[in-house]
Amino acid sequence: MTERLLSLKDEVKTELNKCTAIHEVNALKAHFLGKKSPLQELLAKMKEADVEEKKTLGKAINEFKQFVEAEISLKLKEITSLEIQKRLESERIDITLPGKSFAFGHQHPLTKIIEEIEDIFIGMGYEIAEGPEIETDHNNFELLNLPQGHPAREMHDSFYIDPTNLLRTHTSPVQARVMQTSGGKPIKIICPGKVYRRDNDDATHSHQFMQIEGLVIDKNITLADLKGTLALLMRKMFGNELEIRFRPSFFPFTEPSVEVDVTCFKCGGEGCPLCKGTGWIEVLGAGMVHPNVLKMSGYDPETNQGFAFGLGIERIAMLRYGIDDIRYFYLNDPRFLKQF
Ligand code: FA5
């Protein structure tokens, strides 16, 4: 009997050594300790043994059982730890690999220019005002000294929505709106926004473009203040590389009126198709607020003066970045936009 148990122990060890998976170990456990195991034969033999033999046999069988269970639990531990190791190996993360790069969006070049100009004016104590893109004829023209039938209305070929409303042709109606509600108090604002005109699209004209309006109203404001302000803006935007010039002009809402030109970046002032041979690109219109405009909005022109200007953002961006066609800003071509 003892010999049989010893040989069974060897068998258990040999068979367990062959196991590589948990289910194989469990099958082996059933084989050595289950209902049809060699152990059952030994137990059957116990019935025939006398009392003394039964004691020794019982002890040996128990010992065998404990042996099998201990060996099996050791093997299970071994297999489990091997499996964990295998899984860790297969799920290993190589932290030295380079990361995936993400494509980030960024601001449109026109937004960049607007924010840059806003910063310059905020630095000079200006506030930002906004108005609607669908405007009344009254704000867009009448309050700016352009009554019905005024020939200068033709300067702005307009998109009318109905007889009294249109897509604003410039940002100047925002100055009219602010003056109407400011109760005759001093004003220092800039108003950025989109404007619309029935202009034919070409390299320097678009039917939809952006302007920034500026308006200052107070006591003792002179043309020198306007000139100084615009010269400072141009120097901040273009440094000393490009020349600027003030040219007498006409706007019904300012008197006197000027236009500001900057040297054409493409030909350096020599004259080319972009600047239509003039050597200059016009970037803004400006002037001293007309006494009629002041009066219509409740300001006494005897004691109040003001200056106003309206600049074309696309033109500034073209000069700044050396872009020779305004249409690039509106094509949304990533090859163009990626460069900013
Ligand atoms: C005006 O729109 C006036 N409201 C400006 C003004 C404001 C004058 C306050 C006096 C006082 P003008 O039509 O010149 O002016 O346009 C101003 C600027 O807008 C131009 O200098 C130019 O830079 C830009 N601009 C005009 N038309 C177009 C267009 N079709 N496409 C792109 N930019 C344009």
Characterization of this structure:
With 340 residues, this protein is of the alpha+beta class. The chain folds into two domains: 2-90, no CATH class; 109-337, BirA Bifunctional Protein, domain 2, CATH 3.30.930. Helix content is 43%, strand content 20%. The protein contains twelve helices and ten strands. Strands 1-5-6-10-9-8-7 form a seven-stranded mixed beta sheet, with helices on both faces. It is rod-shaped, with a radius of gyration of 45 Å. The protein binds adenosine-5'-[phenylalaninyl-phosphate] (FA5). Adenosine-5'-[phenylalaninyl-phosphate] is lined by residues 170, 172, 197, 199, 205-206, 209, 211, 213, 251, 253-254, 282-287, 308-312, 314-315, 326.
**Shape verdict:** rod-shaped
- Summing up helix and strand content along with how strands pair, one would put the structural category as alpha+beta
User: Which blocks of ≥5 consecutive residues have pLDDT under 50?
Assistant: none
Q: What's the helix count?
A: 12
Radius of gyration from CA coordinates: 45 Å
CATH superfamily of the largest domain: Bira Bifunctional Protein, Domain 2
Biggest sheet character: 7 strands, mixed
Q: Helix and strand string, N-terminal first?
A: HHHHHEEHEEHEEHEEEHEHHH
- The N- and C-terminal alpha carbons lie at a distance of 92 Å
Number of domains: 2
Helix amount: 40-55%
Question: Mean pLDDT, nearest integer?
Answer: 93
- Name of the level-1 CATH class of the largest domain: Alpha Beta
Number of strands: 10
Listed once per kind, the bound small molecules are: adenosine-5'-[phenylalaninyl-phosphate]
Q: In what range is the share of β-strand residues?
A: 15-25%
Major sheet: arrangement of strands: 1-5-6-10-9-8-7
Q: Briefly note the CATH topology name of the largest domain.
A: BirA Bifunctional Protein, domain 2
Label the CATH architecture of the largest domain.
Answer: 2-Layer Sandwich
